[in-house]
Fold this protein.
Amino acid sequence: MKKIVNILLDVPLNQSFSYSSEENIVVGSRVLVEFRKNQVVGFVWQNNVDIKSLTFDIKKLKPIIKVFDEVLDNKIIKLVKFIANYYHYPIGQTLFTCIPSLLRKPQTYTLKLEDNKLLKLKAPKVVQKIHLNNEQQSVIAAIKQHLEAFYPAVLYGITGSGKTEVYLELIESVLLKGKQVLVLVPEINLTPQLLSRFKRRFSNVKMQILTSSSSGLSRLKGYYNAQNGEAQIIIGTRLAVFTPFKNLGIIIVDEEHDQSFKQYDGLRYSARDVAVLRASSMKIPVILGSATPSLETIYNIKLKKYELYKLTNRTVETARLPQIKLLDLKTYPPNEGITDIALENIKKCLDNKELSLVFINRRGFCPVITCYECNWISTCNNCSVNMVYHSSTKELKCHHCGISKKIPRTCPNCNNPYLQAIGQGTQKVEEILNQKFPQARISRIDQDTTKGKASWEKLYNKIYNNEVDILVGTQMMAKGHDFHNLTLVVGLNLDSGLYSYDFRSTELLFTQLMQVSGRAGRGDKEGLVLLQTNFPKNELYQYLINHDFAGFANYLMLQRKSLNVPPYSNYVLLRASSSKIKSAMDFLLEVENLANKIKTNDINIFSPVPAIIQKLKKKERAQILIQSNDRNKLHIFLDKLIVEVNNIKNKNMVIWHLDVDPLEL
């Protein structure tokens, strides 16, 4: 007798599809089926479906074409169900986001899972253990008492305080219990340095790196090696949070505050939040580490949901937090964007053979090319943003849609041949420094120079071997890098984050500046940070020069509470895009009417508005903000709203999605 099974497919519909089978198939099995005249991969979501529950003729059901060897881990199946429900994303597309790309293709792979037996893990051959200070020992001893249960712990340590050593000690304890470890990092560029420390410490342990740059086959191998127990440590970026494990014992989220843990398209999940969820469901500890914990994490500490541990001293006994000085641009007018006092200190570093970092939160040569005659500006045709000049290729590039074009010889508007460059980017700063210090070895670190793993590793090795005198870097340099010869940080163009439409902008700016300041003076040499600003009396800078993260966090928390914004309330954005802004706005006005009809007093609906970047990749965008202080009631409302939105007649004129817990408004 034929069996009826329900199968999930990679389609934007929140449902499974029924097929027939001649045999019993395990839930989670990867299969090949026909869908809309194409052969596609699916996963069995329900087997032995009761025929009586069906409302159609089962004779019309298509048969399963092929059953592959792969079977999803039951824990991953439960995770997918929860995530799809929480982020209100189609269940099939949620599942296909969580698996390696090769498993989405209709082909067989020679890699196979072990037969339900746990491979015997090798004992960690521990080498190069260092002396731990009293704070580190105390934290390690306390957390070790909770390795057999769900235990969300926040490791708040100043920059250079030895958070990684705490991780390594805890990992050793977990490995000795025969369990596996998942370490999440915000960006691939943090992995080489972290991996080298892990390899030195655990030379006999099999580690796997899973990042966005990993090949399809490499990610598939890592996926299998973790699932069958062979890989003992997985180090990865955002997507690694969905890796199945045979016997996971701890999850560590390094730099937990970093916004790179948020996915900004497709399934818009937070890897940090998913990590906590996984730890809870598997009854294991999760460590959230940062020198600048996010306000969401601080809020959970205040609610007693997370346990707080502190490291307040740098591990190098002679190392101290750097002195932070503000350079008032009204007192010290800049020369080509850099003040003389900053240049003098860079010269001192060169004389002392010390490394300096010039931090600027823009890449490219300069923000815009403009015409002073008619005020034409180099804007992108696809997006409502300016295009950025890149001197290395002599092109204008859009950092949102990626298109590039040559600089026009004359103004496209008035034919004026004298076009001007306004502002600074990393390339422009690099050029200025080369002119000022022609003998210096200068390296630029941004997304253009570190596109691949190999390019970053090569640059990192040059820095590590003291083959670089001056670094010019974007926010990438604010993320956990440890260069003991770096003694000076100069910050340029910082004030834009002080006054922004987004209530999170000051938190982001403070975090970046505290993190990048922490790169200085991590060895036995004193560090200095010079920050150029037009607003030296701003509260942010005053807290910063005193290294008072706790004070600034409390200051922001009071602001957030008075405004009733996250983390004191919950936000969801419903975004719509179309070829015309009117279509997007008309759709959202209809959504607003529907939402107001079904909402309760616990839900607030804000009127639709165009997005800050209204045009992106040739699409006009608008959005509605939905707010509530009650998370459960908010999700109940969203379930009802989605049903209503799907019944809107002209919904095919737009593309729409929900962003739960958005980081960008």
